[in-house]
Write a structure and sequence with these properties.
The chain is globular, with a radius of gyration of 21 Å. It has a single domain, classed as FAD/NAD(P)-binding domain, CATH 3.50.50.60. It has 381 residues and is of the alpha/beta class. 33% of the residues lie in helices and 27% in strands. Helix 1 packs parallel to helix 4 and helix 2 packs across helix 9. Bound molecules: flavin-adenine dinucleotide. Flavin-adenine dinucleotide binds next to helix 1, strand 2, strand 3, strand 12 and helix 8.
Length: 381
């Protein structure tokens, strides 16, 4: 008699949940993904995709679709308050690390299409309110379903994770960020910088310039949480121009309503409880200085699907193997990104000296890129 496929319910239609749903369905699971919003959509402008995330997209069959129209910079540069380059990582050259930027909607749409191609069912407007280690999920509507595996990927404010009592640490980094997309136009930055990825630092403020398609550039404004004069629903342009006078045209071109997101770090006692696995920002959020929160969510979701599908042992053994395999690299990446975040608090002069020295360390450079250049577990299976 033909065996019924195992059932998975995935909670959350972000990068982590969508990847988990597609990867599990690819391994033969019968999967339903639940998103509480009325539609699955991207928030947050552009996104950096490194080799690890690109490898997952490749295995899910949507690599080319997602990178259609992507931008390839030649270097990631960090500049000080005088616009002097302190560090420069060459990218996308022969033998160098690969990173490209896309609009977030490209990534989300590609992952939805991957799920559809593998037979994932999508339920939007479907908010989960509780899960149990026995594998049951209750929704706001009052309906309860049960599954062989429940994947919780409901983001940083995960109520489901908290309901399971898995959180061991959640801390604010003390920084906030607003992201906008604006049209690429001549004169926003000097021509020599136009196509590159540039991080500008001045005092405790940080501005990220990221071309993300042929026509759009994504800008992130980062400041301390208590730097209220730099924040607002509309960018206080004069505040930012006073910190970055050389970026006046870019700052003046910034329009629209802003949302300020807190940078946080989360850690769990365990990534699973019974039949429930937790991943993405719900489990391992990190400040975005390495551009790896989404990359880690994708590789972790892909690794989960591999671990629970390629073991002859119980689900519990598969989940334990998954965590033992994936957690060390993800925690390394979290720690590294938290250390980079602290550089924003160093005054301009010592930071210039410090970063000039640090940028010469090839060991540090390799450590920084360890997750970005890693091969996802199960990549060749
Ligand atoms: C400023 C900034 C820049 C970043 N840049 C990068 C980058 O360049 N590269 C990179 O890889 N990462 C980057 N990241 C990190 C990346 O965006 C996150 O790590 C990633 O989006 C987390 O995905 P997720 O699926 O875990 O959570 P989310 O994207 O938060 O998705 C969670 C989903 O679950 C849904 N949901 C919540 N509760 C429920 C519920 N009860 N029932 C059903 N659905 C629910 C939500 O509506 C949402 O759709 C950045 C982050 C920030 C803040």
């Amino acid at each position: 008699m033909k065996q019924q496929p195992r059932r998975a319910e995935v909670i959350g239609g972000g990068v982590g949940g969508l990847t988990a749903a597609a990867a599990l369905a690819r391994q033969g699971w019968s999967v339903t993904l639940h998103e509480r919003d009325p539609e699955i959509r991207a928030f947050g402008s552009g996104i950096y995709l490194w080799s690890n995330g690109l490898a997952v997209l490749d295995r899910l069959g949507v690599h080319d679709q997602v990178i259609d129209g992507a931008h390839y910079g030649q270097a990631i540069e960090t500049r000080n308050n005088h616009n002097t380059t302190l560090a420069s990582i060459p990218v996308n050259g022969a033998g160098g690390v690969k990173v490209l930027t896309v609009l977030r909607e490209n990534l989300i749409n590609g992952l939805v299409d991957a799920g559809r191609a593998y037979g994932v069912e999508f339920e939007t407007g479907s908010a989960a309110v509780a899960v149990t280690p026995e594998g049951s999920v209750t929704f706001e509507s009052g309906r309860t379903v049960s599954a062989d595996l429940v994947v919780v990927a409901d983001g940083i404010n995960s109520r489901l994770r908290d309901g399971l009592g898995l959180l061991s640490r959640r801390r604010s980094i003390g920084q906030r960020c607003a992201r906008v997309l604006i049209d690429r136009a001549p004169g926003l930055v000097p021509d020599a910088d136009e196509a590159n990825y540039v991080e500008y630092m001045s005092g405790k403020r940080f501005l990220l310039y990221t071309p993300s398609s042929a026509t759009q550039v994504y800008i992130a404004f980062v400041c301390p949480t208590d730097d209220t004069s730099a924040q607002g629903p509309v960018l206080p342009r004069n505040q930012w121009i006073s910190s970055f006078p050389h970026l006046r045209p870019l700052i003046e071109a910034t329009e629209g309503k802003l949302r300020w997101d807190e940078f946080e770090q989360t850690e769990l006692r365990s990534w699973s409880s019974g039949k429930v696995a937790v991943l993405g920002d719900a489990a391992h959020a990190q400040p975005p200085y390495l551009g790896q929160g989404g990359g880690c969510a994708m590789t972790n979701a892909f690794g989960l699907a591999h671990a629970v599908s390629h073991t002859n042992d119980s689900l519990a053994v598969g989940l334990a193997q998954w965590e033992a395999t994936e957690r060390p690299l993800i925690e390394h990446t979290q720690r590294f990104s938290c250390r980079v975040a602290r550089l924003n608090n160093v005054p301009n002069l010592p930071r210039t000296a410090l970063m000039t020295v640090l940028s010469k360390s090839s060991a540090l450079g390799r450590s920084r890129l360890r997750a970005a250049t890693s091969v996802p577990t199960g990549f060749s299976a």
